[in-house]
UniProtKB/TrEMBL annotation:
Signal peptide start and end residues: none
Annotated localization: Cytoplasm
Portion held of the full protein: 426 to 749 of 767
Coiled coil ranges: none
Similarity comment text for this entry: Belongs to the PEP-utilizing enzyme family.
Name by which UniProt lists this protein: phosphoenolpyruvate--protein phosphotransferase
Source organism of this protein record: Marinobacterium maritimum
């Protein structure tokens, strides 16, 4: 089994007609680095920094964060690591900081929480920048952007942190800054957000949740939660095309990247970077290597007529059966 993995690890995720996809991994645990690298992750597409915060018993200090982030960056260097700033709120709670809200998914989440707790955000940015000094593979990612002023403020915090650290004699670099698209307003304002970012990462879990108004963790409506809902597919095509026009690299890092049916359509749309759990990388790589993008594009064309996720899945099922 390990031998098979090793052979596959060194092969690219390329379709039979030459479309290459970068496969990165989602993580929040240092312990994931070994399985990730064994499975050929080309880097970390999403480092969920809230995970170490959630398993701590108080807010970690800048120094504690620095030590941890440095280990993570080192483990993957020289491969890129997209470190996302704190994304608590919603279903992600800290045991030592209660956020009780009637509508947690519409509340104090992600960048909103960080901008309202600036000292915490600054400590996180400083820790990440310092951790990058010996490594040079850090990219910063911001969750839950829904407004232009949020990304403007975030960028200013990063620029100020770089200046402050340089004044303190620490030669940190300005990293690339990326934004998650997981709120519909961010998708609709992409051209206005673009001047402040270097790349885009789609959080398909939240984007699906917010486009469909379906709580991703509520069992009563969970049957309505599907990233193959035609509206989600329209959104994803639009984002890909806009990023193309704007010259913004884009990746997708929600659960969708692990769903073989969804992968067929993402490749057809032109997504060439996916981030997923390390354990799913070999399976998705094998799938990609067995496909022709040209054939998938006519499949995508057909799904444009579908009015439900069930119709979409029915169209894709025979293709998946064929590739086994
Ligand atoms: C997402 O929303 O798809 C995502 C990747 O972020 P998270 O699951 O951490 O909210
Ligand atoms: Mg999200």
């Amino acid at each position: 089994f390990m031998q098979g993995l090793e052979r596959l690890r060194d092969q690219p995720a390329v379709t039979t007609d030459g479309f290459t996809v970068s496969l990165l991994t989602n993580t929040g645990l240092l312990a994931d680095a070994t399985p990730g690298l064994q499975r050929g992750a080309e880097g970390v597409g999403l480092y969920r920094s809230e995970i170490p915060f959630m398993i701590h018993d108080s807010f970690p200090t800048e120094q504690e964060q620095y030590k941890l982030y440095r280990k993570v960056l080192q483990a993957y260097a020289p491969r890129p690591v997209n470190m996302r700033t704190l994304d608590i709120g919603g279903d992600k709670q800290l045991p030592y900081f209660d956020i009780s809200e009637t509508n947690p998914y519409l509340g104090w989440r992600g960048i909103r929480f960080s901008l309202d707790n600036a000292q915490l955000l600054i400590s996180q940015i400083r820790a990440m920048l310092r951790a990058d000094m010996d490594n040079g593979n850090l990219r910063l990612l911001v969750p839950m952007i829904s407004r232009v002023d949020e990304i403007q403020s975030f960028r200013r915090y990063v620029e100020k942190a770089v200046e402050a650290l340089n004044r303190e004699g620490q030669a940190v670099r300005m990293p690339k800054i990326g934004m998650m698209i997981e709120v519909p307003s961010a998708m609709l304002l992409l051209p206005r957000l673009a001047p402040y970012i270097d790349f885009v990462s789609i959080g398909s879990n939240d984007l699906t949740q917010y486009l469909l108004a379906v709580d991703r963790n509520n069992p009563r409506v969970s049957s309505l939660f599907d990233h193959l809902h035609p509206a989600v597919l329209v959104a994803l095509e639009q984002i890909q095309q806009q990023c193309d026009t704007l010259g913004l690299p884009v990746s997708l890092c929600g659960e969708m990247a692990s769903d073989p049916a969804a992968v067929l359509l993402l490749i057809a749309m032109g997504y060439n970077c996916l981030s997923l759990s390390a354990y799913n990388i070999p399976r998705v790589k094998l799938l990609i290597r067995s496909l022709s993008r040209q054939a998938l594009m006519s499949l995508l064309e057909q799904t444009r007529q579908c009015s439900s996720e069930a119709e979409v899945r029915a169209l894709l099922a025979p293709v998946l059966e064929q590739v086994g």
